[in-house]
Amino acid sequence: MSGVMGEDGLVPRVRSRLPVVCSAGLGLLMLPVAWLLDSDRFSERAGMIAFCITVETFIHSMCLFAEEWLVHSRQRYHGRINEIFQACFRGHVIFGMCSVFLMLMLGGVSFSGQQWSTIALMCAVYLLLRSLGFLGPAPVEISEICEMKKMNVAHGLAWSFYIGYLKFVLPDLQNKVTQYSSTRGKLSSPRLHILLPLNAKVPTKPEEEDTNVIFHENLPELERDTAGVRKRSYKNSVYKITQDKETFSCVLEYATPLLTLYQMSHESSAGFGERERKQQVLLFYRTLSQILEDSLECRNCYRLVLLNDEHTGDPHYLSREIIQHLKQQDGEIHMDPIQELPNEVHPVPEEGPIRNFNGAHHATYPEDPISNDPTLMFSQPQSLRSEPVETTDYFNQPHARR
């Protein structure tokens, strides 16, 4: 479950298809403009431009194919030419080249020498600009591809954190908390609070960040055979958090994969700066939230606490954030049991005296017990045209008339 510090304005959302829609809309608007400027040669020029773009893309794919086939065929593709072909040529390129071939061979389309010269010049300019990087993808496009294909460092760290730790620790946490509460005292929250600082600085002990957060003791250990290690031990720690003479207790720990992000940002060979580190932390938070929310065995067993790194000068920022999360959970996990209404049956008689309670008419019920078995009750049929006539004894008495 996410935190309470307004992540909507901090955690980046998944990119939409707005650039594609804008590009398509502008392209459709430019077509009638081009037709108005030169309507006589519009179809001819449009066909030639489409032909040039298709040929340019095909030539560039051939250059990629030459690199993969001559240098990386055995190591990357095990000598399979079809895999190299699929990696270098996209489907629309093959479709475009087939259309061009059919147009030239069967359609009877021909170009003049000047047009062929223009096509060759356009292909040359395209290939030169592409080789110099002018037509390469923008950084935002590369980021979108990496996020869409789950190729970021944060994606791998989030999945590793879930598969290698949270997937089996969180489902067992409820049993550990129950064992602890039966002997040591009830915790303020049964969930594991995972701290994620934006600057990725993970201290060895939370006390180093805030003196109001004090280690109390560990929960019962979880032993598991993992990767050849017999009875590997996994521990979770209980901390006491104090504020204004009020004490809370919960299970909390830092997200250990953030240590990797922090250390990578200090290695020049990693090419990982401070700005990229913060983006990866936010992407790690978003990815881990999605993974845990989709996991049925981990749902409602955790709490992600995203910590802002702009709290310098506040020595008790960490304790305030944790207590804020704990107080928010009071209305989420502690729910009053539903009280069932008494199973009383109030039969409505057809006849009987009517009493007035607070301006409302209520019928009195006979004291004879009525069977619980369902029965069908029929009223006497009356004509739809007849006026209603009151026949009860109550209204026929003299004192009932006003």
TrEMBL record:
Polar residues: bias regions: 372-385
Xref: InterPro entries: STING, STING_C_chordates, STING_C_sf, STING_LBD, STING_TM
Topological category with respect to the lipid bilayer: Multi-pass membrane protein
GO biological process per UniProt: activation of innate immune response; autophagosome assembly; defense response to virus; innate immune response; positive regulation of macroautophagy; positive regulation of type I interferon production; reticulophagy
UniProt-listed Pfam families: STING_LBD (PF15009), STING_TM (PF23417)
Top-rank taxon: Eukaryota
Protein known as: Stimulator of interferon genes protein
Organism of provenance: Sinocyclocheilus anshuiensis
Gene name per UniProt: sting1
